[in-house]
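User: Hand in any protein.

Assistant:
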Amino acid sequence: MRRNYREMLVAIVVLALMLPVRALPAQQPDSAMLRPSLALLFDGSAYGQDQASKKQIGVVPPTGHMRTNRLILDGILKAPTPFAYSMSVDYNGIEHPDKTAFSLTDLAIIVPISKLLDVSLGRQKEGVTEQMMSSTRVIALTERAAPITAFLPTRNDGLRLGIGDAPHGRLSLGWFHPVPSINGPVPDGSNQAAGRVFFTPVLKDDESRVFQFGASARWTGAIDGTSRFRSRPEQDEAPYVVDTDKFPSRGATMLGLETLVQQGALSIEAEGLVTRATVIDSAAATFPAYFIQASWRPGGEIRTYDARNGTLTRVRLRGHATWELATRYSHTDLTSESVAGGVLDLASAAASWYPARTLRLTGDYGYSVLRRGGTTGRLQLGTLRATWDWR
């Protein structure tokens, strides 16, 4: 059985036009809108390893590359049926001229059913965990925490319901099946379901004071009878350092708790995840993971708050250059019962300078300890990033 992504998009649009749309959500503009944006990221990275780390993952060479060349289009189409849309395309011809230059990152529409309900269809984020809903271009460090990327894909194909009237909390429920992105036979057990609920009991009008807590759940089937979890040490060009490899399974369930606090120039985010995988012919494996991070702007700037997705976004600049300092500690444990994927502890710190609204320069340093294969290896990571983000 084969599927074509273009055919899926046509089906999505037809379905959207058939839905009983009554009004746009309150936070959306009333008229048709096109909002283009362009993002360019360049990373230079270097590593330091002890002998045990080299034996675990091999020698990691320094790199320098154009990380992302992304064109983003989003907005509102009002007639004949109003709906929001989001599309982003990455161009990697500079970085990998021998590979396909263009790749589709997002392609989704958001159809409002009522003030309290909307449906998103297409390639999108699953709506699970605060950090995954944030963009890597705006988070305080250069990459998302390893516990998040170990268990969650950045994008998936499917349908997601948004329930609730922001800004004081929402519920997200989604069903996903990554068939359109697979050029070949459909694997068995590809169905996935994800949900998240968050509440924001404290939200000051100028967003200088925010308190939010939430919970997530995700179930994923075992693809062709196997499961696999893995993660990099919060650096894009580094290899996967914790990796369960494929193991016989019937599927896995993830549960997570999260909190977000912002008081003026200080922001704190924390998440804890527990994933339990059914292992065939063995006891179930349990993988705990968590992170906590803090960021501070010495100039007193705050991060804006996205009430629809329940996440912090960009630093709100005041027309002059500013700094942001951030730190994070994360723990990712992929070793349990018969599965030996390794345990990663990582402490990192970053400093970002914003000389202009569209430009960000970041230095990020991480020190990781990996326990895998009966040895303990230590890997240091340093990244310098330049981000140009126009919108």
